[in-house]
Design goal:
187 residues; alpha+beta; Arc Repressor Mutant, subunit A; Alpha-Beta Plaits; three-stranded antiparallel sheet
């Protein structure tokens, strides 16, 4: 496994734990496996994904990025340490861009959020990030982008600690989307 892939696996684990805050250890692997389909492309590698996750999590624990514990039910959990949160921030979302493929796949990516009023400044910052990343406002608290951007959204959710308040949806079509196609230059 290349260094670049290891870094992406580490980033996926950090983002998964960062979004959730605390995860049961049995929940880490399925969530990371879902993220890893964007990192490890070959179907032949599916059997080894869990092994990679376990080894990466072990190295992260050795480095002090995550800690293991037990919840009130006695189940094993994993959480980010302060050092892990700093490492996650190192994957600066400010440097992230949404890559535009040569050919559009015909799908829209919708970001829907419902962030409480007492988190108004987080909500406003999220809107600013979405604008900066090239999203368009479809309706109030509904933003749209025609390109794959799951990784960036996961990082935003982790950064703002709003995992359950933001939904990522892939849509086959949006009614009356001519204006969206024009705005995004999709023809």
């Amino acid at each position: 496994m290349t260094t670049e892939r290891r870094t992406k696996v580490k980033q996926a684990v950090l983002a998964t734990v960062g979004v959730a805050g605390v995860l049961m250890l049995t929940a880490v692997a399925p969530n990371c496996v879902q993220l890893l389909r964007y990192v490890i492309k070959s179907p032949g590698q599916r059997a080894t994904r869990l092994y990679y996750i376990k080894s990466v999590v072990g190295r992260m624990a050795d480095a002090g990025l995550v800690s293991f514990g037990k919840n009130h039910k006695g189940q094993s959990t994993i959480r980010l340490t302060d050092k892990g949160r700093k490492e996650l921030k190192r994957y600066d979302i400010g440097t992230k861009v949404i890559s535009k493929p040569r050919h559009w796949d015909g799908k829209y990516r919708l970001i829907i959020f419902d962030i409480k009023e007492w988190k108004r400044n987080v909500r406003d910052e999220l809107r600013n990030w979405l604008k900066q990343l090239g999203f368009l406002l479809l309706q109030r608290s509904v933003w749209v982008c025609p390109y794959e951007c799951r990784e960036v959204i996961i990082l935003l959710k982790a950064h703002f600690k709003i995992g359950r308040e933001v939904l990522y949806i892939t849509a086959e079509e949006i009614e009356n989307d001519r204006w969206l196609r024009q705005e995004f230059g999709l023809g």
